[in-house]
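Please, why this fold?
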Amino acid sequence: MTYAGLAACFLAASVLVLVAAAVLRRPDRRWWLATAATALALVVLTAVFDNVMIAVDLFRFDESQLSGIHVGLAPLEDFAWPVAAATALPALALLLSPDDPRATRGARR
């Protein structure tokens, strides 16, 4: 399996979780903006640090398994992981949170 194929599996799973959270919980605009800002920050950090780590030869990729598209030295497939994490984790948190947000306020006292 290529890196792109593996990344596509994880992205598909994270999108399914995100769609389920959006349909079942109907998050507000603030949640969407926070999730998008998190995804953007993770993608930028991935671009910077992957390029640094590849430049100093901390790791290498099997070029025959890559799509050939790069952002600097980082292969495009490497950006699937932060996007999957930034979509799936907030969506899971939303799905697993109590239905009534007031229920958690009383439990914290």
Q: What stands out?
A: The mean pLDDT is 89. Residues 29-55 form the longest helix (27 residues). Helices lie at 3-25, 29-55, 80-96, 101-107. The two ends are 51 Å apart (CA to CA).
